[in-house]
Structure formats: C-alpha cells, structure tokens
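Encode chain A's predicted structure.
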Amino acid sequence: MNQEQRQLFRPRLGKRRLLDQTARLLFAFAVVCAIGVLVWMIFDIVRVGAQWISIDFFTNFPSRFPAQAGIRSALFGSAWLIIMTVLIAVPIGVGAAVYFEEFAKRSRWHSMVEINIANLAGVPAILYGLLGLTVFVRFLHFDRSLLAGAATMALLILPPIILTAREALKAVPQSIRHAALAVGATHWQAVRAHVLPAAIPGIATGLILSVARALGEAAPMILLGALAFVAFVPTSPFDNFTILPVQIFNWASRPQAEFQELAAAGILVLLALLISTNAIAVYWRWRMERKIRW
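Encoded structure for chain A:
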C-alpha cells in the first residue's frame, strides 16, 4: 500500500472505528435494558408471590377461596404430561435423527424432509394445539385427556429433538465410525455401541431443553381443553387434567388481587422447575463429557 492509498484509507478507518464503538455501545445498552427488565419482573413476582408459598400451596387443590387454593392437581398433571411426552417423543425423535444422519441416502425426498423439520421447529405452539385438537381429540377420539395432551406436546418438541440429536451425531468424529467398521462391526453395531454413546451429552441437553419448553407451554393445552379447575389427581392417561401454565393463566385472568398473587406464586414454582431442568441439562452434559474422551 503506497502513501496515497494510506491517506485515502485513514478517513474510512476512523469512520469504521466510530461505527464499531457506536454499535458496541448500542448492543451493550440493549443487553443492559433486557437484563434490567428481566430482573425487575422477577423481583416483582417474588415480592408479590413469595408470601403464598407454603406447604398448603403445594398440597391443596384449586379453590374459589384464595386462602385454600393450591397447585396439587396442576403439579401432578404437569408431571404426568411431561413423562408421557418424553415416552412418546424421545424414541421417535432420536430414532428419526439416527436414521437421517446415519442411514438415509441423500435424495430430494431427504432434503425436503430436512427443510420441513427445520421449519416445523419455528411453528407457533398454538398451531400444534389446533393440530392436536383435530387429530387426537376429534379424529382419534382421545377426548380431552392426558394422552391427547401428551401426543400434542410430543409433536411440539419432536422437531427440536431431531435437530439437536442430529447435530450431536454430526459432532461425533468419523474416526470412531471407521474404527468400529474396521474391526468387523456392522453399521448398526457401530452406531449403537459407539456413535450413540458419544452423542448422548448433546442429545440429552436438547431433550431436557425441549422438555423445559413443553413444561412452560399453555396455548396448546388451552386449545385442547385442559381444565382450569381440577380438584383431583389424574390416575390414568385417559383422565382430564390441568397443568401449571393453565392454572397460572386461570388465576391471572381473575380480577381479585389475591388470585393475581397466587398467579405470581405459581410463576415462581414454574420458574424453579424450568431453572432446575436447565441446571440438570448443564450438569448432565458436563458429567457425560468428562466420561467421553475422543
């Protein structure tokens, strides 16, 4: 670069540095604002709802009287729903990821399915509720039961489970596959005994994060008819049910100040469950990565 070119470049370099500093300040300000709003919201929820957290709050059923209201049926309903959702979604999701990543031949059909799976991961949850209402409630006659809710939630979390499982399988070095095949293992034996165990940390992380999303979704369950007032604990997959987000929505929609405070207490419980599931995901991934050395 000669002297004339340097002279021409210096003014542009100054403008670029100014733009860089301005962009950094704007992005930092946006982050501070977002964190500030989040902290303020959490502080307000804790201030309003913490006074209602007690043993009775966890053991009582919903009630018209705020002092006697609790989340027992919602907690058990959420537990039933998540367990059934995992039992449906995990075998299908992980199996689909293994097939597409390890066995499927590249073709137009394969590419079309990949694109559709990626698009389905961004579909609003309310649309899955409409699909579940049409297919599981009305067509298959599951009625407004836990089974219909779990099947709908399984559809909701299947795309992210497939995508994260495929990424985890891609991250496994090809040398592991080649080594297994070199000693006489079949393709399936190599995948089952070597590739899948090495991919478990990524698969488990994606699974738990997907379950955390399902735990906090209310829109599909409201469409499916999850009841806002359930004074019993579900005992079978065909029972009616409610879940924590629906119970919170019910309390928040009432005009009485006490029910608004109960909704804040329910949000605290739901936040604790979501944070716990994410912490489990981080810890599990860390433990599994320590065991697996490539």
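The chain has a mean pLDDT of 85.
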